[in-house]
Amino acid sequence: MAQRTHVPAQEKPKQARGCGPRPPAQASGELYAALDLGTNSCRMLIAAPNGAQFRIVDAFAKSVRLGADLERTGHLSRPSIERTIRALQVCASKLRKLEVQHARLVATEACRRALNGKSFLAQVKKRTGLQLELIRPEEEARLAVISCAPLVSVESEHVMVFDIGGGSTELVWIDLTGVPGAERVEAVMRLDIRNRVRNGHAPGQARIVDFISVPLGVATLHERFDDVEDESARFALMSWYFEEHLAKFAPYVDLDVLEGVSGFQMIGTSGTVTTVASAHLGLRRYDRKKVDGLTLTERQIEKVIGRLMALGPEGRRSDPSIGKDRAELIVSGAAILQTLLRIWPTDRLGVADRGLREGMLLSMMSGRGALHTRGE
């Protein structure tokens, strides 16, 4: 899929496309930006190509709770809109200050579901100069998969990548049995979820068994059962309700998909997964370098979830490994995570502190030839 480039209208680069030859992107020092506006958070990365990866130049993350009360009203509220626009104004300022040449700015589930989603995006354009792209769930999942590809093990025959967001959860099941171990990471990078084929695939290529976007994330699931006072009952109801929405996911319908498989790997990319990893490590201050790429066993995850539930609301808010912003939503996220682990037991969960932004950056840079592979 061709990447779209968006920059604030008043800050377009002086040299437009087609105005003469340009140096290779990596040598030119050009900057790339990726912004992900979700149901709960607004996040942006600005980066420069660096070998086969990228170097982060600036970052922004803010809990804006854009989808607050969306489950009940069907609309984005005025306070949510104002919080979000203030955050986007900061992002626009950073893009202008750093003279970012290539950017992709996307909005996801909250704007897809809200009856006033399109008018909100028009208001964003008018007040910030940013043109946000409303992407489909398939594209959201594709970007998450791309970002997680480097974590795929050479021993994995089947991989499920899941992204627990604020308003939705995406699951992609990938069959790698026909791909040599050394080529599996690259095969995952090339996947196109929009053209998934359930029956048959070219020899040596990864196969998408199935993809699903469940319209439930940490924020929407929390809101739906917020009136249940007993926390244990609420957790059980959230888990049951989420599982009900997996009924059309092929690997759920046919649980024998793992029969005879010697290597099954789950990779989770979400604030829930990284928070559980941070709590497992006992980090008083979050450290991405220690969390991203970590492998957790099912037993380790169950132990952390049990401790989080035992802490109660007040205990979670004061626990430094969780943080105040995450404390309210970690229970609904844990309910989703535990449901997935119960349905498809695994002794290794790959923890990914990466997602749409990283996927967008890699995709944009790769499309412009800005990344240098080992063979170059």
From TrEMBL:
Q: Which superkingdom does the taxonomy of this entry point to?
A: Bacteria
What the entry lists under Pfam families is as follows: Ppx-GppA
Q: Where is this region: Disordered?
A: 1-25
Q: Which GO terms describe its molecular function?
A: pyrophosphatase activity
Domain Ppx/GppA phosphatase N-terminal, by residue range, is 50-365
Protein name per Swiss-Prot or TrEMBL: Ppx/GppA family phosphatase
